[in-house]
Amino acid sequence: MTGMQATEQRSHVSAIVLAAGMSTRMGAIKQLVRINNKTLLENVVDNLLRSQVEDIIVVLGGSAEEIQRKLWLDHVRVVINDAYREGMGTSLRTGLSAVNPQTEAALVVLADQPFVKPGTLDYLIKRYREHRPQIVIPMYKGFRGNPVLLDRSVFPELRSLTGDIGCRAIFGAHTENILKVPVDDFGVLLDIDTKDDLERLQQAHASEECAQELLETAQDGGDSGAPQLVVVGEDAVTKALAKFASILHFTVSIVDPFLRIADVPGADRILHALDLARLPAAAETYVVVASRGRCDEEAVEQALSSEMAYVALLANKKRAREIIDSLKAKGLSDEQGARLRAPAGLDIGAHSPEEIALSVMSEIVSERAKAVRNIP
User: Could you tell me which CATH class the domain 12-195 is placed in?
Assistant: First the structure.
C-alpha cells in the first residue's frame, strides 16, 4: 500500500515539488529531460508516489503548458507560479498556498533530484513524527542534502520569502529546532543543472560511485611536514585554492563526497566524508569552508573545535553570524567564535575565483608570518 492510499490516523505530510524553473543552464526544458527512460520530473514524482507522502503538489512556471501537455500528472495537483521569473521564493509561496488545511508538515522537493530513494523520504517522515522538530534535514556523510521537511509552524516564514532564495534562508532562526538525519542515500546530494551534470550523475548513480573509500590519496601523498590547506566544498574557488597552495608547498586536502584526485590539480587528498579528524595530522592546518551552504555550519564547528591555525568561511558576515550564533547555542565559546574569518581572505577587491583564492592564500601567508614573529 502506498502513502497515497494509506488511511490510518497520523500526521498528514504533503510534498511540494519545485519545478517552475526556466532551465537556463540546461539549454532545454529540464523537467522533460529523460533519465532512466522517464523524464526528470516523472522520476521525482514516482519516488514520491512510492513513499508515505499523502499529497503531492507540483509547482510549474516556465514552459508549464508544454510540460503539462507531454507528461501524465493526474496523480498530483499542479499549480502554476506566474511569478516564477522572480525566483524560488515565489514557488514556495505558490506551493504552500495549495497545501491541504490538515497538512502538518511538507517535504520541499527539488524537481532536479531524481535519485532520492522513497525509503529515504519515508525515513525523514518517520523521524519527524517521532521528534516533531520544525525542520528536518537529510545528511549524507556529514553533508546537508535535500529534500527538507518543514513543520507547519514555519510556513508563515516561508510565505514571506522573496527572490531566488529557498528554505535555507530560515534555518538561522531555528537553531534549536532542526533535526539532522543521517541517511545512507547519496541521492540527497545529487541535483542536475546542466547536461554535463546529467551525464556525470547518471554514471555516478549507476555505479554507486559515492560508496568509495573515505580518504583518497595521490601517489606521493604530500609532504607530512608541510603546512596543510583543507578546503571543504567543491567549486571554482576550491580548484584555484588547490593550485595556489600547491605552488606554495602546502599539502592540499579537499573535503567533498564526489570529487576524485584527478578532478583537482594540486590536491594531495580527497576526503569523502565531513570528518576532519580523519585527515592526517599536520604541524599547521588551515581550513577554508567553501561549501556554499551545503555544510557550512558543520564544517565550521569541526574546525573551530580543533586546533586549526586558521578557519575561514567563503560567505558574507550575515551568514557567518548566523553560524556562530547557532554554534554558541550548542556550547561554542566566544573565544572560539572569534577565530572564524568571514568573509575569507584579504580585502583586495577580489571577484573572480582566482582572485578570491589569491586573497585567501595571501591571508594565510600573512597569518603564518605573524605566527613566526609572534605578532598578535
Answer: alpha beta
